[in-house]
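Escalated from tier 1: farnesyl diphosphate holo job.
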Amino acid sequence: MAETSTTPVAPGQVPAHVAIIMDGNGRWAKSRGLPRLEGHRRGVETVRTTTFAARDLGVKVLTLYAFSVENWKRPQDEVGGLMSLLEYYLKKELTTFVRDRVRFRTIGRTADLPANIQKLLQDTIEATKQFTDYTLVLALNYGARTEVVDAAHAYAAAVAAGRENLNDDSWSSFNRYLSTADLPDPDLVIRTSGETRISNFLLLQAAYAEFVFTPTLWPDFTKADLAAAIADYNRRERRFGLTSEQLKPAPAR
Ligand code: FPP
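Tier 2 regenerated the structure:
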């Protein structure tokens, strides 16, 4: 697909939060007779281009599913390769994020990542925390069910300490304990590579999200693909449980 978008995206209709399940690195490599890690290497380049493509298109928060809790079960050399790529990526992007005013943060159990990666993550989060216009969230050692378990533990501890009251059974009081507490829910979730699964990604936060599945493999994903997904999103009617009629403005008297 062409690098520049021909699909117009009307300002004001851009989803504030786009979340992407980046899939297809392995197939991209296999179809070229290359090792899987080469697909991941190209995938990192797509992470870099998509970060800035999303901002150019007016997105405010971009969340990328980079490493799931299940990914540890992959062959050890692939896991090691992914960690090395993450290290390379973070070292390279720190100055870019500061220069281009990208707030960086993570979701997931990052305390289980190698110590050198944890240090790089903390440095990058710290160096970019003052930026407010655009946020890149990397989901690392992330799984939605794990996140819910962690949130339930924290919530139970808060109840025991008298900081939460079980009579308050609102979603907003529990939502505070999710790793995404300070982020808007994703409006649009994209999955590349033709798979149509959610794979334990933002299960609660995506309750009202629109989904776009594209056959494009992640290393081939371009700004044009992102713009096309946003254009698709714009053709949907988000009803949040209401009827279509309820959403229409009342006729002028
Ligand atoms: C899925 O491809 C890809 C992942 C395991 C997650 C995404 C990882 C990257 C983009 C590279 C690392 C990212 C950073 C930020 C350092 P797959 O291997 O499942 O592909 P397949 O389904 O074709 O085998």
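The pocket of farnesyl diphosphate is lined by residues 22-27, 40, 43-44, 47, 66, 71, 82, 85-86, 89, 138, 193, 218 (CB under 6 Å).
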